[in-house]
Amino acid sequence: MFLDLLWKLSRPLLFSLDAERAHRLVVGSLGTAPRLSQGMLSALAGPPAASQAVTLGPLTLAGPLGLAAGLDKDGEAIEVWSSLGFGFVEVGTVTAHPQQGNPQPRLFRLKGESGLINRMGFNNHGSAALAETMRALREAGRWPNVPVGANIGKSKITPLEDAVADYLTSLKRLDGLVEYFTVNVSSPNTPGLRQLQSAEPLKALLGAVVPAASAPVMVKFAPDLSDEDLASAVEVAIESGCCAIIATNTTNSRPGTTGRTGEGGGLSGAPLWPLARQRIGQILDIAGGRIPIVGVGGIRSPEQAAELLELGCAAVQLYSGMIFEGPGLISRINHGLQQA
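The chain above was modelled as a monomer; its predicted structure follows.
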C-alpha cells in the first residue's frame, strides 16, 4: 500500500523529533491544508465498506473503528480523519478553561515497546474555541459524514467540588455541534480527576450531564480501578443513562519493561494491551449486555480489533497504534475485519 510506503519514508524523520513536536507537526499540517489532506488520504485509504456500518446505542457508525481522544485535542483536522477510514471520530479532551497543560517534556516514545507515556495535562484551547471551530465547519458544509464526539474533562483550576459545573459549561457550549459526548473521568494527569470515578461523585456528575445533553453521552474509565470500584462505576453508568462505556484510558502502571523510563504519566500503546484486554472483558461481564462497550487500549492489528469485537465490544478505538504502525493501519484493520 502506497500509504504504508510513505509512512516508512517519513517515520525516521518524525521519530528523530521530540514526540510532542512531531505530533504538532502532523496534526498542524493536516489542519492547515484539510481539503488537500482529505483528498490525498481518501485516494490512498478511503472509508470502510458500507457493509461495515454498525450501531452504537442511538448512533450509526460508518465503521467499527474510531479515532480515540487525545490525537486531535482542538479539532484542528476534524474533516480529515474519516478519510483514513475511521468510522467515528473523537476530539479532545477539551476543558471549560483554556490551559497549557503540564510542563514539557511531557510525551515520551517507548520505541522498543511501541508504547507512549504522556503527562500532557489536558492542554487545549478550551471548549469555547472548539465550539467556534465546529460551528465554522458546519456552516461551511465541511462537517464529516461520520459521527464526531467531544471528550470533555475537568479544568485543572476547578476544585473537585465544582467539577459538575465545569463539565456542564463545556457540554452547553458544544451541545448541538457534536453527535456524542464522552465524559473523561479517567485521565491520570489532572490531579484528583480519577476520584470522580467513585460511585457517589460519578453519580452526581453523570446525573447532571446526561439529561443536560441533547446528544448521547458516553463515559471513559481507567484500567487501574479496583474490581469493586470498576463494578460500581459500570452500574452508575448504566443507571445514569449513558449510551456506552469506553474502556480503557491510559494506565499509571508499568507492565513489562516500561518502568525503565522513570517517567510519570499515563501509559498507552502495545504495553497496555494485556491489561486493557483483561479489563474490557471484566466490564463486558459486569455490563451483561445492558450497555454497549467501546474497546480501546493497545490495538495495533486487525486481529486485536477483531478479538475485542468478538468478545462483545460494539466498536473499538485507537490512537497510539497509528503512531508506531502508521496511518495505513486503519485501512488494514478495516480490510481485516471485512475479511473475518
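The radius of gyration is 18 Å.
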